[in-house]
Amino acid sequence: MPKRRTRARVSPFQKYKLAIAAIVVVAAAAAVFLALGHGPQPQPDNQIQILEKGQSTGRVRVSNGQLIVNGQPFVIRGIGYDPIPIGRSYAYSFYGNPEIYSRDFPMIREMGCNVIRTWSKVTTTDFLDAAYNNGVNPIYVIMGFHVEPANISNPDYRSAVVNEFKEYVRRFKDHPAVLMWCVGNEVEYEIQKRWPDDDSKLRDWYTLLNDLARAAYEVEGDSYHPVMTSACEIYFIGDRETGSDDNSLKFLDVWGATIFRGRSFEGAFDQFRERSSKPLVVTEFGVDAWDSTREVEDESTQAEYAAQLLDELSSAGSRVLGGCYFEWSDEWWKAGSASSHDYGGFDMPSFPDGVSNEEWFGVCRVLENDGGPNIMQPRAVYQVIKEKYGG
């Protein structure tokens, strides 16, 4: 018969030592496994994804569909501000020329404006200082930030523009003149011109928009300023297929929209409320002062349209934060020579003459001034805005 094997007896102390040894072996094996790149890996700080944000604790915030500034409800009585001098192109940066904004800001305050909106990146603190005016009748700034639609799907561009925006926010976030960050202007329109049958480009834009809004929050933290964009009209907003719905844009705080429907907004505010639960800023509205039918300047019709639009805006109802009239001054660079006041028109059936004359939208006409900054000469619409804004 074979011999029966007997099991050696193990003392409790020996069991303890064996257990410790086993733990050490397993831990060592796990360390090797992770070192080889297997299993969950720690994320670098710049790749940590914040999934949501709470209400801002900052001096500018959105609460229950209202804009709150320094603890008080705030209505935007704004103007689009891009005072490119005669003879200069759109690329000219006026932020470094205090003669320009020192000329304009007193007139803008007198008109009753409390906000200006820029299309380009603000580049100097001096500009913001002049706008804020030590808190005396301050002009707050919707801080523009350009997004290039041509590169919207390029991963390198997307990464670069997020980093650029973070630096922009980091530089100016503590300035008291900052009201909101506005990323992109009518990007949808530019995309549809380039790729009329490719909705993937719109999806790329809206994912980038949400990434940019998230990036601002990552920089500012709980005291963040609202982030908005300026959409081309209402119709692109709230589309789940392209990602412009509220659920897809969790980090976007406010919608902006350019609305040019002629004498009236024609139900735009109700249409917006059906599409989004976010607040709305009308980033551009108004008509130009050129009558292309008679080939004469017609500032009275411009003023008449502005009066009705401003009345409608003031009674727009819930979640409409106000708007920025388009625009402070004529822009000679938009058509033909930047040194001549051309028309630059395109068909716009809702306008008085059926044409949008791009160089003639200014509240002020621009006059040449040898040896100094251009002269701003208010049109009739200046007094209308002053009356409606309570200037």
Describe the overall structure.
The structure is a single chain. By secondary structure, the chain is an alpha/beta fold. It has one domain: Glycosidases (TIM Barrel, Alpha-Beta Barrel), CATH 3.20.20.80. It is built from nine helices and 17 strands. The strands form five sheets. Strands 4-5-6-7-8-9-10-13 form an eight-stranded parallel beta barrel, surrounded by five helices. Strands 1-2-3 form a three-stranded antiparallel beta sheet, with no helix packed on it. Strands 11-12 form a two-stranded antiparallel sheet. β2 and β3 (72-73) form a beta hairpin. The longest helix is centred in the N-terminal third of the chain and has 24 residues, at 12-35. The chain is globular, with a radius of gyration of 28 Å. Residues 1-47 have low confidence and may be disordered.
